[in-house]
Amino acid sequence: MKILNFGSLNLDYVYSVDHFAAPGETIKCADLKTFCGGKGLNQSIALARAGAAVFHAGFIGANGAVLKNTLTADGVDTSLVRDTDGPDGHAIIQVNSAGENNIIVYGGANRALTPEFINEAADALCEGDIVLMQNETNLTDEIARRGAERGAKIALNPSPIDSWLMENFPFHLVSYFILNEIEGAALTKETEPDRITSRLLSRFPNAAIILTLGERGAIYRDKAQRVYQPAYPARVVDTTAAGDTFAGFFLACVSNGQTAAVSLSLAAAAAAMAVALKGAADSIPNIRAVLDEHWKL
Ligand code: RIB
């Protein structure tokens, strides 16, 4: 069983600021660092560091070799990462003194996927594999349909949520919704966590819902069970990629036969470790470190 992640690959420009720039305000930053990121790349690395067999499918631009090399170094299969001549995807990230971030994403090569490429990548799928996607690439609807036709389970992290996805995505094909409260509220018009999961489950009764609540933890729901996992204490330096770490660890563990409760707990521990370090992919721990820390938390 493998996980095929049709995922974004970004160069992240991370600006350390005292506070976020307000409308009309010019601020100075104390530091600028460039990291590998993109919700797709971060999730592939989290999956691999959690022990899953991961194939990453996506496009990089003229300066994206470092993104592909970073995935390869973590044992992700990059035979479906293709070069293009266009600009790379990138993100402009402000991190404030509380470790919070705000992010602007430029799609670049991530939004140049073609139906031919998706068909070709889907040829690598076998019955029971998992197709993972976020909402930073184009053609997510095609990806889900081709994956389902091949007998794969569909895992959707609808981030960042937008009206196109809400109006066009074939949500009935999804087996795992991994989402935060903002995305849950957009999809259900509910704001209370249990109402969000209930509403999603009533629309998609065969799906599993994994709702992350930031420092309040996470909820897992399917038609047979509800599991609540509190967040572990964390020393917050930079929250970038905490959600991606959680998503990758949860999916790797649950697809490896762990229970929902164990998978949630390990994912929460990995996310708590990720926020203690700067950067996106660079901050994601591996499963050995998570297991070592887990019993102390
Ligand atoms: O989830 C964090 C990621 O969001 C960053 O790495 C950035 O590239 C954006 O995609």
Outline of this structure?
The chain is of the alpha/beta class. It has helices at 39-49, 65-73, 115-122, 140-149, 163-168, 181-188, 193-203, 242-255, 260-274, 287-294; strands at residues 3-6, 10-16, 31-37, 54-60, 77-83, 89-95, 101-106, 130-133, 153-156, 174-180, 208-212, 218-221, 226-229.
Commentary on this structure:
This protein has 297 residues and is α/β, with parallel strands linked by helices. It has one domain: UDP-N-acetylmuramoyl-L-alanine:D-glutamate ligase (3-Layer(aba) Sandwich), CATH 3.40.1190.20. Helix content is 34%, strand content 25%. The protein contains 10 helices and 13 strands. The chain has a 9-stranded mixed β-sheet with strand order 5-4-1-8-9-10-11-12-13, sandwiched between helices. A 4-stranded mixed β-sheet has the order 3-2-6-7. A hairpin with a 4-residue loop joins strand 12 (218-221) and strand 13 (226-229). The two termini are 31 Å apart. The chain binds alpha-D-ribofuranose (RIB).
Question: Which structural class fits the helix and strand makeup?
Answer: alpha/beta
User: What integer is the average pLDDT?
Assistant: 96
**For the report, how would you describe the main beta sheet?**
9 strands, mixed
Main sheet strand line-up: 5-4-1-8-9-10-11-12-13
Whole-angstrom Rg: 18 Å
Name of the CATH class? Alpha Beta
Cα distance spanning the termini: 31 Å
CATH architecture: 3-Layer(aba) Sandwich
Question: What's the helix-strand series?
Answer: EEEHEHEEEHEHEHEHHEEEHHH
Number of helices: 10
Helix content: 25-40%
CATH fold naming = UDP-N-acetylmuramoyl-L-alanine:D-glutamate ligase
Quaternary state reads single chain
